[in-house]
Design brief:
Layout (H helix, E strand, L loop, with lengths): L1 H19 L6 E9 L2 E5 L2 E5 L3 E10 L2 E11 L12 E9 L4 E5 L12 E4 L2 E2 L4 E9 L2 E10 L2
Antiparallel strand pairs: 1-4, 2-3, 4-5, 5-8, 5-9, 6-7, 6-10, 10-11
């Protein structure tokens, strides 16, 4: 029940962010992508992430200036009861309008298992327009990504 409430709160906050973002010079985006079911091995044990988790990426700023960026996972239903994500990290990447990657902000790999991994990224000024993405890695394998276009 706790995780269902957390997911509802996170989704409501994301909708509120999009609906209350002022028009004009400031912009923001929030998007969620389902985490597909997968299995992986940790210390000889097989771990399974069932259906029911969403990877959410929130970004705020103006033009090429990012003032806030966050990404994380929320799980509900059966997925909220699983052991979660072990050996996880969240990376933020930036690509130009030709989809050429020019910057990666690599997150720390966390050895512990967590049902709700999350990472904030530092504000930054991008050198060009394109897209900003967040990627969740589990046990060294990229499992899900969520991107936003950065335009004029």
């Amino acid at each position: 029940m706790h995780y269902t409430a957390r997911l509802t709160t996170a989704l409501a906050a994301a909708v509120a962010l999009v609906l209350t973002t002022p028009t004009g010079a400031h912009a923001g985006a929030a998007g969620s992508t389902p985490v597909r079911t997968f299995e992986y091995s940790v210390g000889g044990a097989t771990m399974k992430v069932p259906t029911g988790c969403m990877f959410t990426h929130v970004i705020r700023g103006s033009g090429k200036k990012i003032t806030y960026q966050n990404a994380g996972v929320d799980c509900a239903f059966v997925a909220a009861l699983s052991t979660g994500f072990c050996n996880w990290r969240i990376d933020f990447t930036y690509a130009d309008t030709n989809n050429r990657l020019y910057l990666t902000s690599r997150g720390k790999t966390h050895a512990e298992c967590k049902i709700d991994p999350m990472r904030n990224n530092s504000p930054r000024k991008l050198p060009r327009y394109g897209k900003a993405c967040a990627h969740l890695y589990v046990n060294g394998v990229r499992r899900v990504s969520q991107c936003h276009h950065i335009t004029k």
